[in-house]
Amino acid sequence: MASSAALAISPVKVRKPRKTVNDLDLKEWKQYDDIFTDSLWMINERDRSGTHAGDYHGNFVPQIPYQVMTRFTKRGDAVLDSYLGSGTTLIEAKKMGRYGIGIELQDSVAKMAKERIDETATVYQKIKPKIILGDSGDLKSQMQVRTHLHSIGKEKLQMIIAHPPYHDIIKFSDDENDLSNASDSENFSEMFGDMLDNTLPLLEDNRYLVVVIGDKYTGGEWIPLGFNLMQEAMTRGMKLKSLIVKNMAGNRAKRNCENLWRYRALYGGFYIFKHEYVMIFQKKPAKKR
């Protein structure tokens, strides 16, 4: 006869509901065949749908903000682009129902971005993008972001996307606060660090910072801008979640000059840049004392 212990029913383990940071229905995970899950992103053509355009030198492909916002934000979340440029992130945010906030240093560029964002069609009519003219490393900009967050009923951001200039590869303005005017790579990293110090306090714990950056050559030396900025984020307590390598297809400076660049590479003993990084960091909660 079986003992009472053997007949005892094992307690049923109840799983806690999984806390999600996106709107994906994982019961239907096979339908998301357009969402990347690998660390190598081959995007051979930029999305030119709607008001997206590739005419602003230095803007990134819309697929990047689409991918990271799909994976790491929900509808109604607030996303800050600390280097707005032509408005790529805010165009995608508007289409996806996120509260897009952008900081842009140049008035003329901000106006161009506003026109494109305003013309972007969306079904989320109540969600309005916000453009702030100023320096993302300046406290005044931080206060404007805070004010806007309060106006939409939020205390914190759910994502920060940072696509800074790749140092002095392209000169965007004469403004001393423009990262393309940094005196050297160390100063460039310091200026990026100022932006982090100014914006990370606005980011909700356990949410995400996305940095899009490439490297460069100076005087025949490879300057690892990407890894320098990675260090800036990690020394501020950000946890590296993913390091993605994305191909640089259709680079304007190299377009229709493949043979010339190949000759230069062979002659100069270097390799042609064909990639940039998409770095995804998660904000660690502050330690309780």
What does this molecule look like?
The chain is an alpha/beta fold. The protein has one domain (57-283): Vaccinia Virus protein VP39 (Rossmann fold, 3-Layer(aba) Sandwich), CATH 3.40.50.150. The chain is built from eight helices and ten strands. The chain has helices spanning 4-7, 63-72, 88-96, 107-118, 139-151, 185-199, 225-234, 258-268; strands spanning 40-41, 78-81, 99-104, 130-133, 157-162, 203-213, 216-218, 221-223, 238-247, 275-283. The strands form two sheets. It has an eight-stranded mixed β-sheet, sandwiched between helices. It has a two-stranded antiparallel ribbon with strand order 7-8. The longest helix is centred in the middle third of the chain and has 15 residues, at 185-199.
Reconstruct the topology from this structure:
Layout: H1 4-7, E1 40-41, H2 63-72, E2 78-81, H3 88-96, E3 99-104, H4 107-118, E4 130-133, H5 139-151, E5 157-162, H6 185-199, E6 203-213, E7 216-218, E8 221-223, H7 225-234, E9 238-247, H8 258-268, E10 275-283
Parallel strand pairs: 1-9, 2-3, 2-5, 3-4, 5-6
Antiparallel strand pairs: 6-10, 7-8, 9-10
Helix pairs in contact: 2-3, 6-7
